Predict the 3D structure of the following.
Amino acid sequence: MEIFSNLALGFDTALTLSNLFYCLIGVFLGTAVGVLPGLGPIATIAMLLPATFSLPPISSLIMLAGIYYGAQYGGSTTAILVNLPGESSSVVTALDGYKMARNGEAGKALAIAAIGSFFAGTVATFLLALFAPPLAEIALKFGPAEYFSLMVMGLVASVVLAHGSLLRAIGMVILGLLMGLVGTDVNSGVPRYTFDLPELADGINFVVVAMGMFGLGEILVNLENEETRSMLSKKIGRLMPTMDDLKRTAAPILRGTALGSILGILPGGGAMLSSFAAYSIEKKISKNSAQFGKGAIEGVAAPESANNAGAQTSFIPMLTLGIPSNPVMALMIGAMIIQGIQPGPAVMTEQPMLFWGIIASMWIGNLFLVILNLPMIGLWVRMIMVPYHYLFPGILVFCAIGVFSLNNTEFSVYMMALFGVFGYICTKIGAEPAPMMLGFIIGPMMEEYLRRSLLLSRSDPMVFLQRPISATMLILSVIAMAVVLLPSLRKKREEAFVE
Amino acid sequence: MPSFIRDPKDFWSGVIFIFFGLAAVIIGRDYAMGSAGRMGPAYFPTILGSLLAVLGVISVIRSTIRTGEAIEKFAIKEAFYVLLAVVLFGVLVRGAGLFIATVVLVMLSGFASSKFKWKPFLAVAVGLGIFSSVVFVKGLGLPMPIIGPWLGF
């Protein structure tokens, strides 16, 4: 079986001492990010990116990936212990997890969340190893037309699955695409939208955008109503779940994993959507549904498995097609480009060590996370109590130093401030920054593929419909759009997100 | 807010989209358009800008028909302190050095918090200043002065 030799190569790469170290750092930071209030994985990854430029590509990507899936573990800890989800993907975990904690079963809830996450992580890693190669093989046959349509489909899906106003989400995607075009045009060498500023000749750095919109923007939103966290005075209780608990949660964990794995692959999906969907489905079909909202262990197991599975399978489109399915993946793609790796299907064949190393590191990282989260729970409990008003100045310092060090210019710091204001305004008027980030990363690639397709077809736009794969993807995009715009389904979509 | 706007969120996002869409199209007129087969630098941004402006117009029209929720109040004071702090960091970091810039950033942004107290924030500021000087300048070797030339060293 080829998959085993591939995985062996991956483990060989991931198990070197330095890569193990960076994996551990990544998941440790990820957990911390998940636990600390008001700091998300996007802002953290953006903050740490400048520090990873000097690392070898494998180590830096292993670490950045660890932050993302590590945050899913950490988020559940805060959700269970203080009823405040550290991550948006753990919002539903708080519903039942916190009730369990109030009933003195915090330990059990934490343990089930960790076990479910670990199981889901293992399955998702295996799925990634299984499905990535054939997908990459298909993608290798893609021409520019297919790529263009794939990007259209990806952006449409991310808009359809985003919450909030559809119109605003589409607008934000296009705005992101436009901002991605700022800088020197590759084909003609003409500087575009640079206002004669030499600092903009290379375009706007994606780290600046991410730190501004997600780092600074989030701080401004959080400062509006500063919460005081009050810790549960109850004991955490025994960590080991009983046989009965394991039996009760086996099916929810399986269902959560399956659902999360599928939703994670979809553009715009990932951890958050997975956990919401898993919770509402579990609530409908569980034998124990009356208990939901009152401390049902199934209500912790399903979404926690789902968010971890989703976090990991969202790497599939990123690693095989070079298409980001959420803002975190967009940052990973940006990180790859800076490291001199062109993301896309060729990564697997040209950089097998990198590709399989990242996949194997995820399983190792999940193992680290179980150890980090259960025996070391005391450390995280203390970290939960860090008051936000001491935390955010620190975040600002790291962001400021990080963007300054990108090109050693104050200009980046000012740009970050500008994007911070813009991100804050956007959040206020209900226009999500996430679709903009996707558009921003995809913008230049999309233009390039559009150019090449039309050059090859001698300006015939029908090329997108004449090639079967491309046509299918465009038709799917149109259907997805139409479905969401239908009034009856539109209501359902809104209800689904309200739940 | 004029009374014809029933959905302020739709209205203002529409205005933003129109602004950026038109800006992209108008500024793009300085660049060569080219043709579909040989796209100039203006081609793709002009398409995107026009699309964005159209979306903006739809959004503004919709805001006069459909009622939506109001925009919550902006935390102007908080945003002002945080942004001023960040901008000052940029102004100070070269001249006054990383340590001073960090202390100023922490203290000034601290004013944005309702829980600001002089003593503990000063402690955090000095602590972070020392930490970032040691880690980023000494440790990672970032090219910025710890104490800058403005202070006469």
Summary: Chain A touches chain B through 63 residues (CB under 8 Å). Chain A has one domain: 2-498. Residues 2-498 of chain A form one domain.
